[in-house]
Amino acid sequence: MPSTRETTEAYFGAIARQDLDGMAAAWEPGSTAVMFGMAELRQPDDGVAWFGNLFRCFPDFSLKVEKLIVEGDSAAVHWSATGTFDGEGLFEGLKPTGATIAVDGIDIVTVADGRLTSLKASINGMDLGRQVGALPPAGSPQDRIMTGAFNAKTVAVAKLRELAGSSRSRKG
């Protein structure tokens, strides 16, 4: 039976090769992968569909394992990925923009009997959004306007809550 290290390396190797069958084979059916802020995937079917779409949207998608730390039945994987958002379909609801991305993430996986049983993935979604053009560049005039509008809304909501609270206390 493959070790935690072997199973993890096989899974991330399959991602790097865009090998959907290899990715599916690494999973215990019915297990869950959570990509914080993006998706919760029942494996292997949802994972194959999600990554298949990713590979269609980023045809030159490339993944590299930067560091792998294994302890018992768990592993932490620091990875980096690059690609060009110029394929077909929608990624997280967005049409391809032609933008090139370079992102890092950290996944924590659990393995039992040579198969993945859990994956928790973390990536900086705001940075990815900026890179694909869904959000303005950090520090740009558009970013400052968006931040200013958000802060103005926050102040207005707080003031409305304050006024509603004082109105209730006068009635009581």
Question: If you had to describe this structure to a student in words, what would you say it looks like?
Answer:
It contains five helices and six strands. It is an alpha+beta fold. It has two domains: 132 residues, Roll (Nuclear Transport Factor 2, Chain: A), CATH 3.10.450; 37 residues. A six-stranded mixed beta sheet has the order 2-1-6-5-4-3. The chain starts with a helix and ends with a helix.
Shape field: globular
Total helices: the number is 5
**Share of β-strand residues:** 25-35%
Mean pLDDT, to the nearest integer, reads 95
Please give a handful of descriptors for the protein shown.
Nuclear Transport Factor 2, Chain: A, 6-stranded mixed sheet, 6 strands, 5 helices, 2 domains, alpha+beta, 172 residues
Brief overview:
This protein has five helices and six strands. The protein is an alpha+beta fold and about 170 residues long.
Give a topology summary:
Elements: H1 4-16, H2 20-25, E1 27-35, E2 39-42, H3 45-57, E3 62-71, E4 74-84, E5 100-112, E6 115-123, H4 125-132, H5 141-171
Parallel strand pairs: 1-6
Antiparallel strand pairs: 1-2, 3-4, 4-5, 5-6
